[in-house]
C-alpha cells in the first residue's frame, strides 16, 4: 500500500516527563486511522507533533515524501478539527469557511462557489448567513469540518471532534464524517478515547498507553486478538478469570479442574483467561462439559437483543463478577434465575491467555 505519512522513532519529552516513547507508524494514503487510548496516554501529543503544533524531541515525520518533523504548521499540508469547534463567533458561517480561502488569494467568486459546495455537502445549504451561536453543537462541528476540508488538505486531523456532543448527534455525525472521508478519499487521523467510536469508524486503530504503542490493527484484530492485557481490558468488555496450572494437562479455576488451554503453559504458572461476555456460554440443564465450571447467577440485565448475566465463580468469595451475554432466544431454554447455580462453558477458540505479570 502507498504510505502517505511515515512516523519513525518519534519521542517527546516535557522536562522530566516523557509523553511519547519511540513511536513508529506508517499511515496509508486514503486511510482512516484512530489513535485510541485513555486520557494522558500521548495520543493528542502525537497528533500535535504531526501538525507541528508541538515539535517532537527526536525522531522523524515524513508526509508524502517530504520531511516535516520541524516545519511550522503553516508549511504543512493538513486541516484540523478540534473538540471545541474553534469557530469565529463574530463571523457568519460562510465567512468562517471562506476565511482560509481568502487568505490563499482566491477570488470572491471562487470563495463563494467553494463555500456553497461545502455547505451543500454537509447538509447545511441555508446556514451560510447565520452566526455560529445560532447553530447547534452538531451543526457547528460540521462547519468546522467544512472549513478544514475546503482548503483541500492532503491530511485531515480530528482531535476528539465528537466528545462534546450528545449520544444521538454523535452517532449521526460519526456516520457523516466516515461518509465524507470515503467520498473524498482523504487520509484521516482521529484522536479518541471512545472505543466504540474507533471500532465503528477506523480502517485501523492504534491503541496507546503511557506514551507507547500497545497494538496497531483493524478493529476486528484489536477486538478479537488483543496483543496485551491492557488492550483486552480497554477495548470492549472482557472477563478475566484467574487460574493456575496444576499439572501437565490441567488448570485450576476456583475449585474446578479444567483442561489446559495451551501447550506452552507450564506447571506452576499463574494466569488469567480473558473471555468476551459473548464467548462464554451456559451449559444446558443436566449437561456438564469438560471445559465448564459452576457459577451463581447474581443479576440479569436486559440489554435489548440479549440479557447480560452477572455471575460469581462458585467457591471464590473475592472473585470479580463474570459477565455472560445470553441471546433472548436462549433465555427461556436455560431457565436462568437470580440466585440459581449454573455451569459456564469456556470457548477454547476464543480464550485469551495472559500470564501473571504480563501488562
TrEMBL record:
Alphabetic keyword roster: ATP-binding, Cell inner membrane, Cell membrane, Membrane, Nucleotide-binding, Translocase, Transport
Ranges in a coiled coil: none
Stretches assigned to the ABC transporter domain: 5-235
Family matches, as InterPro entries: AAA+_ATPase, ABC_SmlMolc_Importer, ABC_transporter-like_ATP-bd, ABC_transporter-like_CS, AminoethylPonate_ABC_PhnT2, Mo/tungstate-bd_C_term_dom, P-loop_NTPase, Transp-assoc_OB_typ2
Superkingdom in the source lineage: Bacteria
GO molecular function annotation: ATP binding
SMART domains xref list: AAA
Secretion signal span: none
Stored Gene3D superfamilies: 2.40.50.100, P-loop containing nucleotide triphosphate hydrolases
NCBIfam families registered for this protein in UniProt: PhnT2
UniProt-recorded name of the protein: 2-aminoethylphosphonate ABC transporter ATP-binding protein
Species for this entry: Photobacterium atrarenae
Amino acid at each position: 500500500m502507498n504510505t502517505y505519512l511515515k512516523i519513525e522513532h518519534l519521542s517527546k519529552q516535557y522536562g522530566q516527563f516523557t509523553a511519547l516513547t519511540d513511536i513508529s507508524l506508517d499511515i496509508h494514503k486514503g486511510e482512516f486511522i484512530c489513535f485510541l487510548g485513555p486520557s494522558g496516554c500521548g495520543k493528542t501529543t502525537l497528533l500535535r507533533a504531526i501538525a507541528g503544533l508541538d515539535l517532537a524531541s527526536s525522531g522523524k515525520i515524513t508526509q508524502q515524501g517530504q520531511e516535516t518533523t520541524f516545519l511550522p504548521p503553516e508549511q504543512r499540508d493538513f486541516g484540523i478539527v478540534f473538540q471545541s469547534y474553534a469557530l469565529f463567533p463574530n463571523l457568519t458561517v460562510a465567512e468562517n469557511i471562506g476565511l482560509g480561502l481568502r487568505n490563499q488569494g482566491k477570488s470572491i467568486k471562487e470563495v463563494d462557489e467553494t463555500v456553497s459546495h461545502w455547505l451543500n455537502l454537509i447538509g447545511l445549504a441555508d446556514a451560510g448567513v447565520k452566526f455560529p451561536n445560532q447553530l447547534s453543537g452538531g451543526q457547528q462541528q460540521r462547519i468546522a469540518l467544512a472549513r478544514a476540508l475546503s482548503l483541500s488538505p492532503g491530511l485531515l486531523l480530528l482531535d476528539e471532534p465528537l466528545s462534546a456532543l450528545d449520544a444521538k448527534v454523535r452517532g449521526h455525525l460519526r456516520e457523516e464524517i466516515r461518509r465524507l472521508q470515503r467520498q473524498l478519499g482523504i487520509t484521516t487521523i482521529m484522536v479518541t478515547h471512545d472505543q466504540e467510536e474507533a471500532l465503528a469508524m477506523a480502517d485501523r486503530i492504534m491503541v496507546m498507553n503511557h506514551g507507547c504503542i500497545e497494538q496497531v490493527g483493524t478493529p476486528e484484530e484489536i477486538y478479537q486478538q488483543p496483543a496485551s492485557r491492557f488492550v483486552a481490558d480497554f477495548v470492549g468488555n472482557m472477563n478475566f478469570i484467574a487460574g493456575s496450572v496444576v499439572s501437565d494437562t490441567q488448570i485450576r479455576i476456583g475449585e474446578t479442574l479444567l483442561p489446559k488451554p495451551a501447550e506452552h503453559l507450564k506447571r506452576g504458572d499463574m494466569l488469567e483467561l480473558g473471555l468476551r461476555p459473548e464467548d462464554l456460554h451456559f451449559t444446558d440443564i443436566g449437561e456438564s462439559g469438560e471445559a465448564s465450571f459452576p457459577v451463581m447467577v447474581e443479576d440479569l440485565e436486559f440489554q435489548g437483543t440479549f440479557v447480560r448475566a452477572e455471575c460469581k465463580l462458585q467457591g471464590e468469595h473475592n472473585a470479580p463478577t463474570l459477565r455472560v451475554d445470553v441471546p433472548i432466544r436462549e433465555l427461556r431454554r436455560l431457565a436462568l434465575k437470580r440466585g440459581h447455580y449454573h455451569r459456564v462453558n469456556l470457548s477454547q477458540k476464543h480464550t485469551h491467555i495472559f500470564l501473571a505479570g504480563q501488562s
